[in-house]
Amino acid sequence: KREGDTGSSAVQVIALTTRIQQMQKHLSIHRKDHSGRRGLEAMYVTRRKMLDYMERKDFEMYRRVVQTLGLTRTPPVKYIHNKRKDQKKILEKRKNKKLMLKRKKKKAMR
Questions:
Q1: Which intervals of the chain are annotated as region Disordered (predicted)?
Q2: N or C of the chain: less Cβ packing under 10 Å?
């Protein structure tokens, strides 16, 4: 927009993308830097939120920025499948089924 602009969404997205690329390079060398990986995930989320804001407010600028940076739109994850909770539910159902069968057998014997 103008010289020295640091506050507009487009400039912030570009700056974040640069930081993300630097962090990706750092993490490719330092694979065990877990706090750096968390920071990278936070940067992804922040950039996604800024891009969503730009898409709503100034769609033309959004398209230009995405095209310039070569970003692609990925759909948000609706939910994370929690296997442990599901496994507990399955085991509980099996247990209940066995109890019901035992009760039916007892009633049939009477």
A1: 85-110
A2: C
